[in-house]
Write a structure and sequence with these properties.
The chain is α+β, with helices and mostly antiparallel strands. Helix content is 38%, strand content 24%. It has two domains: 35 residues; 140 residues, Roll (Nuclear Transport Factor 2, Chain: A), CATH 3.10.450.50. The protein has six helices and six strands, in the order αβαααααβββββ. Strands 1, 2, 3, 4, 5 and 6 form a six-stranded mixed β-sheet that branches. A hairpin with a 4-residue loop joins strand 2 and strand 3. About 10% of the residues have low confidence.
Amino acid sequence: MRSERQSWLLPAVLLAVMVTAAGGLLARDLYAESTPIVQQPVVPSETPVPRSEQPGSRAVEGTEDAVRHPMYETVRQLLQTHFDAINGRNYERWMTTVTSAHIKSRPEPDWRAAYRSTQDGSVVVYRIESGPPDQARVMLGFVSTQDVADAPPELPEECIQWHVIYALAVENGAWRIDAGATGASPQHEAC
């Protein structure tokens, strides 16, 4: 009786080991493929993107200083979603990138009017500064193109280079762009 039990035990153990090994190899390959690619830092160019190609690339990039910050990938993804929402005229998606205070300061009709012809690109994160817990600031630049009628009244241009500082705050467990004085007075000039 005992030899019958042992005769099937060895093949069963070998089968379990082979299945486990195959599963481990498969998992290793899957994880290797899903490992995020570390973005190479950019060196901001003094040569502007040609006027016909403005606002430039839609991809959010970072300088070496920004890319080395531990929050960089979180900030990059947040800003990518934010600018994609603006470029796609998607208010619902935009709301996922900003705090409730920011949403209250920019209701949908105002948001749609402000961004009706805007296209943003050439977004570069220059610096990320962590602050008190659940707060940070991000210094970035980007280019916007828009109808002159939709440009800021103080700079009625079709193409504007922006230099801004966004305040970030954690809300409901996620980083969001906050409303407030930090982003209220950006520097900007015609492209």
